[in-house]
Amino acid sequence: MNHVLSTEVVHDPSGGLTQWPEDHGLRPIDLSVIISVKAEDRVEMIAVPHGRRAPRTGVHRADLQLSATAIRDLADRLRGQWHAFVHHQPVDADGMPYGPRYPFAADHDLRPARDIVLPMIEDLARSGDRTLRRILSGADRDLEWFREFLLGELRREGLRISFDSRDLSLPWPMFAVRTDDSATPAFLGHRHEIDQTGASYAPVYSPAARPVPVTSLNTDTALDAAGRSEDVAALLRRRSRLTVRTHADDLLKSLADAEFDEDLMYFWCHGAFNEYGAHRTVGIRLSDDKVIDADRVHEHREEAGTGQGSVFRPFVLLNACHAGVPAATAELEYLGRAFIKHGATGVLGPQIEIPQVFASEYAHAFLDRYLSGSRTAGEICRDLARHFLDDLHNPLALAYLLYCGIDSVLEIRPCTSPPLTSTNEDGSARPTAAVPSQAIGSPNISPSTSAPRTG
Predict the structure, then answer these.
(1) Where are the beta strands (DSSP E) in 38-93?
(2) Residue 160, SS3?
(3) For residues 105 and 215, what is the distance between their CA atoms, to the nearest angstrom?
């Protein structure tokens, strides 16, 4: 005898498997700081601690005493001090240079120079603390209350913080705060996960979630032997489906493709300034002389991004000198913001001139972790800042600024396919390189008598 069984559906049997949750299951942002440039170069700052009550009058808000121009000058001065660290040259009692040129640029591991390096790192931290305090200085009552609240939040540890500004890009990881448990100020990029936001609304694409990530190496072949660049290329070949581009036209052609479905774009090249009369912006150069700046990205991506099947969602690592620095005027977009506008999940790049040895080591460490698909870009950036600073006495990981990418994470399905080969732009295959994956600890590079190259 047949019986009708009663059935009760207590879970969504399909939507939960086919739709990507909006928060990606990640921790929420703990603090948002919004910086707005108003008329007459005035700056307003707002701080929103999520999950806690704001003041009964609204939000933590104050008009800063310093103008936007003065704040930019302070930020540039701080970057200049970090630049001087990279170009440190020992001198003898008579003030004459001795030893190899720029020894801090010759290796990523600065432990052999511990006695010289540590006092200089302390000076950088004190400069970061002074710069932040000068930006927040003033006797206005609202500003005093705001300063007390914000510095109190920044003295905490392990927060996830977004600094949002369309007009004022600041070196937040390089700033520092004084804490009760240390005589030396602590760098913000060492204490917290940080990104800077402020781009216009971008398309939202679900992650690809495929067994093997799709990546690209966009490079200047003149840098093929610099530092660990060959190890980085081997890592990408071994753990992803890789496309290698060495010329601007190849990259621009790909950007004009509506279905630009890469999970990660890695740039290993030189930064460059592009000037057309009064128009000055930051870009990058591959093996040829054509500069790829924000304008070129817009030109090739805007039309491609209007179609219904358009896809553009890579995380972008811009390992190029100055590629993370905005143009001289706040009105000009820079390269990272252009990628974000068209859908990139995040952009990571240096704010100063980075030695090639360190840049390639940092890239290997970051990509090795990011390609595992288990950690967000925000977590990786903070952990690398701690690793290089605490273990190797090198502060330069704090010079990398994460733009809109604190939650960027690579979704990977379990892989059951055989080992892959990488592909070039022309479709030819390369065998997978058998190079051990090491995030850190490459052999020390002996100092040379020639100046180490920077990007």
Answers:
(1) 43-49, 60-63
(2) strand
(3) 29
Over residues 226-277, the pLDDT tens digits come to 999 999 999 999 999 999 999 999 999 999 998 899 999 999 998 877 677 7
Comparing C-alpha atoms, which of 40, 59, 67, 63 is closest to residue 144?
63
pLDDT tens, position by position, 382-419: 999 999 999 999 999 999 999 999 999 998 887 554 54
CA–CA distance, 200 with 269 (Å, rounded to integer): 27
Tokens of 339: 């990628």
- Please, which residues have CB within 8 angstroms of residue 277's CB and are 6 or more apart in sequence? none
| Residue 351 one-letter amino acid | Q
Q: Which of 232, 241, 235 is nearest to 211 (CA)?
A: 241
User: What's the Rg (C-alpha) of the chain?
Assistant: 23
> Cα–Cα distances in Å, from 133 out to 128, 173, 339, 369?
9, 15, 32, 34
Which residue from 159, 147, 148 is spatially nearest to 191, judged by alpha carbons?
Answer: 159
The phi and psi torsions of 369 (rounded to 5 degrees) equal: -75, -45
> What are the angstrom distances between the C-alpha of 378 and each of 159, 212, 317, 345?
11, 22, 13, 12
Give pTM, 2 decimals. Answer: 0.83
Token pair of 311 as six digits: 């896809």
Amino acid 383: pLDDT: 97
